[in-house]
Amino acid sequence: MSDLAAPGFPEEAVRLRARTGAAAAFPPAGDYGQVLFGAGPDGPDGLGGPADRLDALRLTPPVFMEQRLAKLIDLGREPTYQDVDLATTIGGLRSTAPVYVSALGSTRAAGGDLGPALSRQAGALGIPMVIGENVVPVNGYGRLGEAAGRSLLGRLTAYTERLADGVGGVAVQQSTEDADAEVWNLVHSDPAARPLLDSGRLAFELKVGQGAKPGLGGMTVLDAAAAARVADRYGLDPLFEGQRVLRSSSPGTFTEEILRQQVRLMRNNFPRVRIWVKLHPGRDVAAAVRTAVEAGADAVTVDGAEGGTGWAPAAFPRHVGLPLAECLRRLGALPSGPPPGRLLVSGRMWEGSRAVKSLALGATAVGLGRAALLAVAEDPVDGLVRLVECLGTEMRLLISSLGKYAPDALGPEDVWSPDGGI
User: Fold this and answer.
1) Is the backbone of residue 169 left (phi > 0), alpha (psi -120 to 50) or beta?
2) Host H or E run for residue 244
3) Lower CB density within 10 Å: C or N end of the chain?
4) What does 358-393 look like in DSSP terms, one character per residue?
5) pTM for this model (two decimals)
6) Are the beta carbons of 405 and 82 closer than 8 angstroms?
């Protein structure tokens, strides 16, 4: 799907990274010695786009670096950015980098050949991948001959084909309609998932909300025939011309007690599975994160309002939900701060500085959604691999510049806000 588009997202920059890998972290090599580089008046990503608050923050290396001295003593030489170890644990899953593939559900963009191609590359990288909601109710599980690229089993199998021992893992998301289809029970009892289960690399993610459309469930556009096949499971609204129908999922209903009991029920029913919770950027996000963690969740994913890969009403991306920077600020204001080792965040992630700022403000890892899809659309064989390699190089450079050598060494002291808001 090389014609896949992402208006308002730095699409061309992502596609360049998918083609050229880590070299894209630097200006063109041909400009060396001929072009003078420095900060300019355009957006902080160098693309002229408007800055959100996370983009407006700056990373602030100190002059005196005690951790660099400790690394020097440990290595017996001066450390470089290549000595930064990005390996970490994401929601109980070991990962080669503080990066995961965000939930991609039953939307057409993630279907066809793109879903398995993305899964294979995520497996090869050894980073966790989330299989999003509504895949089974809409496209089938995959046992009965459903289209492999669209089925849940097809994505699961493609991921494990190239996965090395001891790293990575799959988180299977479940929404209200997925619960009716008993998706978690299907996966839990499937021999294809047994290697992940036995090695502690299977997670189930309870979907409470998403950044693209906070307070709403998943939405897709179907033709009339496809809509008729799922009419007993979803809300349908014939809004569009050409017999195209809006298919809407139930957003589900949650209170503090319902969320607490849901997490505990997951713990009880699936004791060998990692428990994740996915939240939209609601105004009470800090209370929701605290509730999920106290109930025993291994990870809580917060989608900033900048996040989302699926279909959404046009008003939502611009006007609904808290920006990711504000979510991080509210979590940082908790008496105990963001939950150590359990906070995952997503929202317009594609390059290293935004990722490192999020890690410094309390996140354990960042999720790639649109960027991952665009990279695989650009190169179905290695596009995501190159994108993550470039992202990893940038992260090593930035973390090293702060005098630190692991993602979990970062802290709020590494970030400066022009308005003092974070």
Assistant:
1) left
2) strand 244-248
3) N
4) HHHTT-SEEEESHHHHHHHHH-TTTHHHHHHHHHHH
5) 0.90
6) no
Q: Where are the strands (E) in 258-312, listed by range?
A: 274-279, 299-303
Task: Return the residue matching tokens 């309002």.
Answer: 305
Q: Which two tokens stand for residue 23?
A: 């070299």
Q: End-to-end CA distance of the chain, in Å?
A: 39
Buried b (16+ CB within 10 A) or exposed e, 69-91: eebeeeeeeebeeebbebebbbb
Q: Determine the residue type at 84.
A: V
Q: Cα separation of 394 and 19, whole Å?
A: 16
* 76 Ramachandran zone, left/alpha/beta (phi>0; psi -120 to 50): left
Q: Exposed, middle or buried by CB within 10 Å (0-12, 13-18, 19+), for 48?
A: exposed
What are the strands of the beta sheet with 244-248, ordered from one edge?
A: 219-223, 244-248, 235-237
Binned average pLDDT, 10 residues per bin, the chain of 422 residues: 80 95 85 58 44 90 98 98 98 98 73 84 97 73 61 90 96 82 89 95 94 83 82 82 81 93 95 96 96 97 84 81 95 87 94 97 96 94 97 98 98 91 68
